Amino acid sequence: MKKKAHKPVLALVALAALSALALPLSAQEEPPSQDKPKPAGSSLDPLPPVNAGDQDQNSQNAMIPDSTPLTGVQNPTLGSPEVRHSYWVPGFQWSGSLQSHSYSQTPNSSWIMNNYLVGNFSLLQAWSHAELDVNYSAGGFFSSDTSQQGNGYYQQLALSQTFRQNRWTLQLLDQFSYLPQSSIGFGGGTGLGTPTGGGASGPVIPGLNNNYVPNQSIFAAVGARYSNASSVQVTYNVTPRGSITLSGSYGLLHFVDPGNIDNDTTTGTIGYNYTLTRNDAIGVFYRFSAYHYPGQPEANGDHSANFAYSRKLTGRLALQLYGGPQFITSRVTANNRDSLTYGVNSGASLVYGLPKGGFNVGYTHGMSGGSGVLTGTISDQLTGSATHTLSRIWSGQLNMGYSHNAPLSNVPNATTQTFNTWNAGGGVSRPLGRTSTLAVAYNATLTDYALGGCTGTNCSSSNIFNYVTINFQWHTRPLVLP
C-alpha cells in the first residue's frame, strides 16, 4: 500500500522557503577560524536556553565551525566556542510546577503541584586527541497527586566521548532519562528538561536526531518511563573534501506501569559526505532500523535511502535537509505473515543566530516506535523555538511543537485512530548574580485523543494540560582541572 507524501513534502517546502529568507540576512563572509587551543573545548548550544544567565568569558570567545558530519546521528549547530581549560561544575536546582490536572483524566480534577530537588554535574575533559563531555542531573520529585504520579526520582544524562587520530574520528554518544511523564514539553521554558539545566556553565552536547531517539509524542502512554539512546559513530576522511560515516545505535523506551507498550530499536547507518564549498555540503546515506516490542508478536524493519544537503555559517546559520524513499516491513508472528509498504522519509533543521537571540525550526517524517501506545507509527514532528534578550538582565523564550502519529496500515487488526498533540509556551529568565538563575515559564499541551487510565462516558477525546513552572538554578564557577 502506497503511503501519501503530501505532508512531508509541504513541510519541507515551507522550511526551505523560510531558509531562503534567512540566507540573504546571513550572506556575509564567515569570520576566519582560529587555531584551537589545547585542551579543546566543547560544543556550543545553537540556541542558549532561557535560563542561561551565566554569561562567562567563554561565550565571548571566537567560534569554531561545526564539524558534525552531515550524514551523522547528531543535529547541526552554529559552532563551538574556544575553551582554554578542562573543568567541572557542580550545581543544584529547585523547580516547582503547577499542573492543571493529572494524567488520569479525572473529571473536574484540581491543579496539582510537583516539586523537583535536583543535583547537577558537568564535566569537560580535553586531551590532545580526545574530549569527554558529561552533563548529568539526578534528584527526587514530590507531587500532590498521590494517586497517580506520587513521589519518585528523576535522572537525565547527556554524554559524548570523542577520539581523533589523523583521518579518523570516533564518537561514543548517549542520552538517557528517567522521568515521571513524557519528555515532550517537560520543563519547557526552564532548565528542568535538560541535564544540568542547560546553562552556559557546562558543555551543551549536540542532541541526537529524532530518528535515533525513542518517540514519546503520544500522551496516552502514562507513568514513569526509561528512555535511552546510545550511538557509536566513526568518520573517515577519504579526501580533503570527502568522508565516510558509519554509525550503530540502540534506543529503548520502557515503562514502569503496566498497560503501555515498551519498544527497542536497533539502527545502522552508512553515509558519504562531500564538501562543495566552504559553507555547503551534500551527502547520501542508507539507514536501517529494526523495531521490537517485548511481549508483543509484532516486529518492524525500516529501510531508507536519503540525499542530504547542508549550509553552515559559523555563529549565524545551520541548515540541513534530507529525504528519500522508505520501505517498511512488518511481521506478526501470531499470523505468520509479513507485509511491505513504502513511503517517504524526510527531515529538515534550521538554526539561525541573531545578535540578541535566534530561532530554530525542525521537522521529521518517518517511522517511529509507537510512543508506548502502538507497535509502530508513521510520525510527523514539527518543533520550533526562539530566544531574545529583552533587557540587560532579562531574556525571553517562545517554543512550540506539533506531532501527528498514524498507525502502520500493513499491520493486521491495527487501530485506525490517529494521534495529534500540540504544545506551546514561553518564559522569561534573569541571572541572580554570576552563579544563579531564576526562570518562570508557561506551557500548554493539547491532545485530540482519550488518555490512558480513563474509562467510562466521562472520558474526553480532547484534553488540555496547563503548566506554570518556576525554576531556580545555582552552580559554582567552573573549577579548572589540571
Strands, helices and their partners?
Elements: H1 6-26, E1 63-64, E2 80-81, E3 87-99, E4 112-126, E5 130-143, E6 152-165, E7 168-179, E8 225-237, E9 242-255, E10 263-275, E11 280-292, E12 298-313, E13 317-332, E14 337-354, E15 357-368, E16 377-389, E17 395-407, E18 419-431, E19 436-447, E20 463-475, E21 479-480
Antiparallel strand pairs: 1-2, 3-4, 3-20, 3-21, 4-5, 5-6, 6-7, 7-8, 8-9, 9-10, 10-11, 11-12, 12-13, 13-14, 14-15, 15-16, 16-17, 17-18, 18-19, 19-20
Structure, described:
- Mean pLDDT is 84; it is low at 1-5 and 15-60.
- The chain is globular.
- It is built from one helix and 21 strands.
- With 482 residues, it is mostly beta strands.
- The strands form two sheets. The chain has an 18-stranded antiparallel barrel. A two-stranded antiparallel ribbon has the order 1-2.
- The protein has one helix at residues 6-26; strands at residues 63-64, 80-81, 87-99, 112-126, 130-143, 152-165, 168-179, 225-237, 242-255, 263-275, 280-292, 298-313, 317-332, 337-354, 357-368, 377-389, 395-407, 419-431, 436-447, 463-475, 479-480.
- The chain has a single domain, classed as Porin.
- A hairpin with a 4-residue loop joins strand 8 (225-237) and strand 9 (242-255).
Average pLDDT rating: 84
Indicate the percent of residues in helices: under 10%
Number of helices: 1
Main sheet properties: 18 strands, antiparallel, barrel
Strand content: over 45%
Termini Cα gap: 61 Å
Report the CATH topology name: Porin
Question: How many domain units?
Answer: 1
Structural class: mainly beta
Low-confidence blocks of residues: 1-5, 15-60
What's the CATH C level? Mainly Beta
